[in-house]
Structure formats: structure tokens, C-alpha cells
Amino acid sequence: MTRTLTRLFSALAVAALGYAAAPAEAAAATICAYDPAGKSGDFFRLLGDYALEAGKWGATIDLKAYTDEETAAKDFAAGQCDGVVATGVRLQRFNNFPSTFEAVGGLPNYAAEKQLIQTFAKYPSAAKKLTKGEYQTVGFIPAGAVYLFVRDRSVNSVEALAGKRIATMDYDKAAPFMVQKMGAIMVPADLGSIGPKFNNGDVDICYMSAPGYGPFELHRGLANGGGIIKAPLAQASFQVLVRKDKFPADFGTKSMNYWAANFDKALGAVKKAESAIPADKWIDVPQDSLTEWDAIYQDVRVELRNKGAYDGVLLGVMKKIRCGQDASRSECAENRE
């Protein structure tokens, strides 16, 4: 009997040790994700695919949809989320290196944007610049070229912007300076108020990428002779920012590679939104005017780099990409960036 009890207790002890040694299932990490269209939006659907793929990397992700970007960012800052998806300009307070991705005139087209995202994924050294303290940017999702929406399509040049009221995201360090440079009048706004201000005529101009055209009903502000100036101000991006200790050690690398490999898929959502805008709403800009825009963009980038709002290293990388596309650009012979 004693021998039987001994064997029984030994077996129970081994079982208990085995149970204690078994790894605990990792808790799900919550990512607060902004999409102007919410759960039904194309970008939120892309994030659903991303979350499924992340499961293969040992990361369980619980996505929480937001239609208000500021709330998503505030919830992340307050520790209610382990990660957040929002525009670079909204997240610049966490690290100005990734937010410089959206520098005015920095990436003139989608090919340049794709090249930069692939550069981030290719070079591990980029991860150091994309990490600051507990925060790490682990993905860039194209959200579309940013254009000026004008209620009067005769406002189609730099000179014509003087004195016009522009709905300006005042949490963006670059925007107020850019508006001042154009001689326009800044009217503070955010993504929640920019649509109503433009549609109701409280401002003459706003800026937005095509995915915001439908959710913010900007067709209303364009209805009476308005248009969209086809001269990109910048490339908007949704950036995936996480608290790195809440995710596996190699999560950042795998996540960055994922979004680089899926750039074209994500860009499809942008092109879908652009194609939904009626063709007669676009205002073509002559090449000489585009050159004038470029000169203003460069002045703004240099000034904001000197003020510490833009990261000089990333500005230099973006210049190399621009000059690689077109070596005849006047900036390529200069040493300003």
C-alpha cells in the first residue's frame, strides 16, 4: 500500500511539474486601428489579413476599429492599446523619424513611396531609427497622395492661395508653416472637423487624400465649382506603431517585411478611392507650376528640419530617391538636404 501511494504521489508530482513548465498562452495584443470608414473600410480589412498573418509569427492581435483618429491615438497613449494604426502626422510626437515619411513634397509619387518602404524593410539598421524608447514603428501602409481641395477651381496656383482660408491640422508641425509660406490663412481643424468646415464654407480649402473623399463627404464642398488640385502635397500613410515589449522580439522585422511585400495590395485601396472621384473634379497643373510648388516644398522641408520637426537623415534618403527617379531636378545639384 505504501509503495502504491509513493508511486501515485510521484506520478502526480511529475504531472504537476510538467503542467507548471508548459508555456502560458500569450495574451492577445490590442491594436487600435483608425479607418475613416470604420470596420467596413478597405484599410481595416487589410489589417484583418495582417492580424491573421501575425498569428504565424506568434503574435495574437485583437483589432479595435476607430473612426476618430485622435481617440485612437489617445487610447494608445493612455495604455489602452498595445499598438495603434494612424497617420504619420498624428503619431509624430512619439518619433519624428517615421513621421518625416509624410514630409511635404518628400515623395512625389507612389513609386518613390514604395521604394522607401522597401528600403526600410531591406536594411535592419532602419529599425533603430524606427524605435524610440518603448515605441517601434513596424509598418507603413499607403493612404494616398494628399491634394488641395478648393471650393473655387479658379484657385489653381500658388499665387491664388494668398489670403484663402485653409483648414489646417494644427497638431501637424509642418502644416501651419506651409500655410504661412503660401500666404494663406490657417483655420485650425482635425480629421473630425475638416470635412464639415470645408463642406459648410467655413474654409475655402482643405487638404486630404482620396480615401477621405467619401467618408468625409467632400463632394458637397466641391459641388458648386470646386475641384482638386492635382499636385500632391505629400504621401499620407497609416503607420503601425507598437509598444515593442508587448510583441515577439522579431515582430518588427516580420511586420515591416509584410507591409513592404503587400504595398501594391494596399495601394489598390487608394487607387479605388481615387477612381471613385469624378474626372471633372481634378484640376491639372502645368509643369512650370509644379516646379514652383517643388521650390516651396523644399524651403519648408529645410526649415522644419532645422527646427527639429523633420528628421534630416530621412530627408536625405528621400532626396536620393527623387533624384534617382529624375536627376534633372534642380535640387539634385544642391546640397540643402
Brief overview:
The protein has about 325 residues and is an alpha/beta fold. The chain has 13 helices and 10 strands. The strands form 2 sheets. Strands 1, 2, 3, 4, 5, 8, 9 and 10 form an 8-stranded mixed β-sheet that branches.
Core attributes:
single chain; 337 residues; alpha/beta; D-Maltodextrin-Binding Protein, domain 2; 2 domains; 8-stranded mixed β-sheet; two-stranded parallel sheet; 13 helices; 10 strands; globular; disordered N terminus
Q: What is this structure's SSE topology?
A:
Elements: H1 2-21, E1 29-34, H2 42-54, E2 61-66, H3 69-77, E3 83-87, H4 96-99, H5 110-122, H6 126-129, E4 131-132, E5 135-150, E6 165-169, H7 174-181, E7 185-189, H8 194-199, E8 205-209, H9 219-222, E9 227-243, H10 251-261, H11 263-275, E10 282-283, H12 287-306, H13 312-325
Parallel strand pairs: 1-2, 1-3, 6-7, 9-10
Antiparallel strand pairs: 3-9, 4-5, 5-8, 5-9
Q: How would you characterize this protein structure?
A:
The chain has 337 residues and is an alpha/beta fold. The chain has 2 domains: 27-144 and 236-275, D-Maltodextrin-Binding Protein, domain 2 (3-Layer(aba) Sandwich); 146-234 and 282-309, D-Maltodextrin-Binding Protein, domain 2 (3-Layer(aba) Sandwich). It contains 13 helices and 10 strands. The strands form 2 sheets. Strands 1, 2, 3, 4, 5, 8, 9 and 10 form an 8-stranded mixed β-sheet that branches. It has a two-stranded parallel ribbon with strand order 6-7. β4 (131-132) and β5 form a beta hairpin.
